[in-house]
Amino acid sequence: TYHVCLSSKPLNSGGDEVDTTCWQTSPRISKWMKEQSLTPEGAYLYFVSKAQASARAIGKDVVGWEEIWRYFGSQLDKNTIIHQWLSGSTIGINATAHGYRLLWSTSNAWYLDWLSTSWITMYQQEPCTGIPDDTCDRLVLGGMCDRSHLLLFFIHTEQLIHFKYRWRRTMGRD
User: Fold this and answer.
1) Which residues lie closer than 8 Å to 149 by C-beta, 6 or more apart?
2) 3-state DSSP call for residue 77?
3) Cα distances (angstroms) measured from residue 26 to each of 19, 47, 50
4) Burial of 93: CB neighbours in 10 Å, binned 0-12, 13-18, 19+
5) Which among 4, 43, 155, 168 is placed 20 to 30 Å from 13, CA to CA?
6) What are the strands of the beta sheet with 81-84, ordered from one edge?
7) Beta bridge partners of 82
8) What distance lies between CA 146 and its chain's CA centroid?
């Protein structure tokens, strides 16, 4: 699991915030979709599949936001790593049940910019809730690749926060 997250191999292909309605207003894209017998959702899947294939062709491990799982589910290439990030989401249960690897870092618990979340709350999160232990061991990469690496994440975060406030206070700012 460290190999996936600590090498230069992962590439997050995104997949969130895609609005396909503009494709229907473009004569050129509308014509292409019609020629290919694709709906806007079908064209989106075509794009995601082509982009991921290009990344894999140069040796990348493709990560995609959970939105692509919601759109396409098991139509995605089986090597896609699904990144569950939305607060309260449970897509990881479904994705791992279909054999997909999961990167879990729910936004309200493990994002560095959520300074109102305590390290205790962060540490109490369990990426494998609802996922059988054997499946979790094989497919859940955790939030920082595995549970032991999470501690390093918190130590680094604490240092950054302390530095930020020390610097501001040294400059006479609060």
Assistant:
1) 2, 5, 142
2) coil
3) 13, 16, 21
4) middle
5) 155
6) 10-12, 61-65, 81-84, 101-104, 140-142
7) 64, 102
8) 15
Block residue for tokens 């109102």: 116
pLDDT 10s digits, 122-144: 778 888 889 999 999 899 987 64
CA–CA dist 30, 105 (Å, integer)? 37
* Confidence (pTM): 0.73
- Write out pLDDT tens, residues 36-66: 999 999 999 999 999 999 999 999 889 899 9
Bridge pairing between strands 101-104 and 81-84: parallel
The structure tokens listed for 116 are 């109102």
Between CA 159 and CA 116 the distance in angstroms is 16
Distances (CA, A) of 7 to 12, 120, 145: 13, 28, 11
The verdict on whether 17 is a catalytic residue reads: yes
Residue 147 · residue 110 · CB < 8 Å: no
Q: Which of 17, 66, 126, 158 is the catalytic position?
A: 17
3-state secondary structure 110-158: HCCCCCCCCHHHHHCCCCCCCCCHHHHHHHEEECCCCHHHHHHHHHHHH
